Amino acid sequence: MDFLMNVFRHPLLFILVCFANTYAQDLSFADELFENYETYKVDGFQQRRIKQTEVLSAIDETIAQYPGVFESRIVGSSVQGRPLPMLSFGNGTTDVLMWSQMHGNESTATRALFDLLHFIGAQQENVRVKNILNALRIHVIPMLNPDGAEVFQRENALGIDLNRDALRLVSPEAQTLKRVRDSLDADYGFNLHDQSRYYNVERTPKQASISFLATAYNYEKDMNEKRRDAAQLIGYLHAINEKFIPGHTGRYSDDFEPRAFGDNIQLWGTRLILIETGGYPDDREKSMGRKMNYVLIGSALDAVATSSFEQVADSVYWGIPENDRKLFDLKIEKVQVTVEDKPYVLDLGINLNEVAAADSYTLEASLEDRGDLSTYYAYEVRNAEGYELIVPKRYSRKIKTVEDRNKLLRQGYAFSRLNKEGAFGFKGVRSASPSLEEAYTHVTFFLQKEGKLEALIWNGKFIQLSDL
Predict the structure, then answer these.
(1) Within its chain, how far is the Cα of 351 from the centroid?
(2) For residue 206, what are the contacts with CB-CB under 8 A and spacing of at least 6?
(3) What is the value of pTM for the model shown?
(4) Contact, 330 vs 155, CB < 8 A?
C-alpha cells in the first residue's frame, strides 16, 4: 500500500511504472535463433581468415539450396578486379542494406550473415520469417573488400581504409557502396565490423564482445528522427545481447568522422546501425561473436518488420556503457623486479599478437605495459605478490628432447645459443648472460618464491613448473 501511495504522489514514478507494465520486449524470436543456431551454421567458416572464393561458393550454394528466395548480382568490382556480389531477398517496401568486411580482416559478420541466410531460407513458413520477407527488401554485400580479405589486412589493395573514403570515393569499392546506397535510398543500413579483442566494457573486466553505435551525422552529434530510430533499434538489440552474454555489450564512441561511411550514410538519410564484434573468453576465432551477430541481425530484421523497436526509449541506448581499451591477454600483478640491486614491485601487461603464417597465424607475445596497471584488466590475471621475476639462464649446448627441455626449465634455463630459434620453446639469444630487457623482449621469465622457481612465463603463457 505504501508503494502505491508513493507512486500516486510522484508523477514521474507513476509514468515509469506504467511504461514498465505496458512494454515488455518479446525475446521469443531471439530465443529461437539462439537455440537453433547449430542447425543453420554454415560449415567451413570456423576460421576468421576467409577468402572471397569461399564467399562466392557460399553464395552459389545458398541460392541453389533455396531456389526462388535469394537472388545475386554483381554491383561492382575491387581494385584488383574481384567482383562485388550483392544478395537480395524479400518482397517488402522497406529497404535494408547490410555490408560486411569493408575491412578485409573483419570477417565475423560475413560468416554470420550466411548462417542467417540459411535460417531464413529453411524457415520460410515460420510466421516471423514470413513477416520479414513480406515487409522488407534486404540487400547484403557480404564482402566489400575482397582484396584486403585475400591477405587478411584492414585496407584495400590501394592501402586505403574504405571506412575513410566516403567523401573522395577514390576506391572502386567505396564508389560501389555509395552507388548502391543511393540507388536504394535505403531505409536502414547495417555497417558490420570487428573490433580489437582488447576492448572492454568501461570500468569492468568484461570484454566488449558486441558494441553498437547509432552514428552521428554532424560534429554537434544532433539527434534527428532517423538517428533516434537507430538508437531505439540498438536499445532493442541491447536487451537481446545482455540476455545471452550479459555484461558484454558496449557503446562505441559517437565522435563525428566526416570521412566515414557510417556517419555519412546517416547524414544521407539512412538509419545507420553499426555493430562491432570484439573478444570473448577462450574464443580467438570469435565463434560467439559470429553466433550473436546471427541472433542480433535476425532479431533486428524482425524488429524493423514489426516496428516493435519503436516502443524502446532512445534513453536505453545512452544507458549502454561505453567501450574502453584496457584489456591484456595476461596481467601479472605485483611482481618484484630487481634493477641495479634494488627491488621494485610492478604489474606487467602482456598481449599475444597474431603473426601471419600461410593461411593461419602463430602467437607472439609482447610486453605492452609495466608499472601500475591497477585500472586495467586481462583475459587471464595472475597475482604474483611475494614472487620475484627471474631472468632465464642460457643453455650453451643443443637441446635434443622434450624431457631434456623440461629438466632444464626446472633448473632456470629458457634461452639457448645452439638451438634453432624457438626450438622446444627456447628462445635463441646471443649474450652469455641474458638481461632483464631480453627477458622482457621475449616475454619469457621465471617467477620465484622464497628461493624456489615455481612458474614460467613462456612467450606470454603462464606455466606451472610442477606441471612439466
Answers:
(1) 16
(2) 200, 247, 248
(3) 0.92
(4) no
**C-beta separation of 212 from 274 below 8 A:** yes
Residue labelled with grid coordinates 538517428 = 227
Beta pairing class for 452-458 and 445-449: antiparallel
Contact (CB, 8 A) for 276 and 211: yes
Contact present, 250 and 323 (Cβ < 8 Å): yes
Reading the block at residue 11, the C-alpha cell is 508523477
Question: For strand 71-77 and strand 94-100, is the pairing parallel, antiparallel, or unpaired?
Answer: unpaired
The 10 Å Cβ neighbour count of residue 71 is 10
Cα separation, 294 vs 30, whole angstroms? 10
Q: Which helix (H) or strand (E) holds 430?
A: none
Q: pLDDT tens for residues 19-61?
A: 443 458 999 999 999 999 999 999 989 999 999 999 999 999 9
Count of residues making up the chain: 468
Cα–Cα distance, 449 to 383 (Å, whole number): 12
Here the contacts of 24-29 (C-beta below 8 Å, separation 24 or greater) are: 25/236, 25/239, 25/308, 25/311, 25/312, 26/308, 27/239, 27/240, 27/243, 29/128, 29/298, 29/299, 29/302
C-beta of residue 367 within 8 angstroms of C-beta of residue 358? no
Domains (range + CATH), the chain: 26-324 (3.40.630.10), 327-467 (2.30.40.10)
Residue 164 CA to residue 152 CA, distance in Å, equals 18
